[in-house]
Amino acid sequence: MSLLFLLFATLSYAFGTKLDHLQVLDSLLKKDYDRRATPTNHLNNATTVVCELYIRSFGSISPVNMDYEVDLYLRQKWVDERLRHADITEVMDLNDPNLVKAIWKPEVYFPNAKHAEFQFVTVPNVLIRINPDGEILYMLRLKLTFSCMMDLSKFPLDSQVCTMEVASFSKTIEELRLEWKNVRPVIMGKGLKMPQFEIVKIAASDCQESFQIGNYSCLVAEFYLSRSVGFHLVQSYLPTILIVVISWVSFWMDVDSVPGRTTLGVTTLLAVSSQSAGIQSGLPQVSYVKAIDVWMGTCTAFVFCALLEFTFVNYKWRKVGRPPMQSYRVNGEVATVDLPTDPIKQAIQFEKKDPKNAALARKIDEYSRLGFPLIFAIFNIIYWSYYLL
């Protein structure tokens, strides 16, 4: 029984103390507190606000829209001596939108944000922590879409730098100065991974927004991202390599296999064209050449050259040799004709191939069996060395 009484007394004291602190805070806000003035306005100094970002989720970067989505906590900390009182002896954590409206807070915004949402589920995601010494921690949760202008000249073997900017909206640098937290100003959530990129480095630095009406303090966080190549190796590079290799099968087919070699060449050409169109459908229409364009264009050229090789070889193979010349005397004069007079011999002569052209056609096929793979291997060495190193 005594234990229950002691517990009840402790809770009553804590609740009474909390209630007293809130009453003191209300009296401070109603007395001489002006939420429009900065905490250091009476000193003619700029109020320093320390900022910190905690990234809960980092959405996939869209190359089409040139943006990315994040879910983050924005933490701001400053000192407001007007909220310091001897009767406030412990930290107060408050989730009260009315209190947010009543106190002064930094009017910051995100200059490179395209869209922003404040989280209301299940309550407004805002926290105000007031310390006895007047230090205030203001934390809120936001869902934002930031623009990220990417250079896709090395896509999909590229690396990108996306920024996240925080700046003062209405207070100039003489009134408000933003600073990053000294240790780990930008924190990524535990186990946070991106589907297409790997975060190589995060750099936090200061910047300054200059306008005609004044200079404004701002902060910028730079995310150095490296694209994961595994997806594109499986979905883009490997299929096109196989299509190019399949087009070389025609070099081992007989020269007389016209339907088979023609079907193989046209089918592989359509396959690589379809693969290229599928890749381009998910990319923006930029004015420069991308790495994937070089790859798909070269693979299309190899398949097309294999089809042209068969066309030339078939032409040489079917080319008929010149029939022997025969002379006849007509009205006392000698006349020379190219065709034999015997119809049977004439038909046999037309069907007879030129041995030199037939040998040349077979030689071209033999050289192509070695030349095409060798040139394609040299292209791969140059391509991967240039775009990766």
Characterise the protein shown here.
By secondary structure, the chain is of the alpha+beta class. Helix content is 38%, strand content 29%. It has seven helices and 14 strands. Strands 1, 2, 3, 5, 6, 7, 9 and 10 form an eight-stranded mixed sheet that branches. A four-stranded antiparallel sheet has the order 4-8-12-11, with no helix packed on it. It is rod-shaped and about 110 Å long. Residues 1-16 and 346-350 have low confidence and may be disordered.
Fraction of residues in H or I helices = 25-40%
Counted by DSSP, the helix tally is 7
Strand content: 25-35%
Radius of gyration (CA) equals 39 Å
Low-confidence sequence ranges: 1-16, 346-350
Structural class: alpha+beta
Q: End-to-end span in angstroms?
A: 77 Å
User: In total, how many beta strands?
Assistant: 14
Query: If you average the pLDDT, what whole number results?
Result: 85
Major β-sheet profile: 8 strands, mixed
Shape: rod-shaped
N-to-C series of helices and strands: HEEEHEEEEEEEEEHHHEEHH
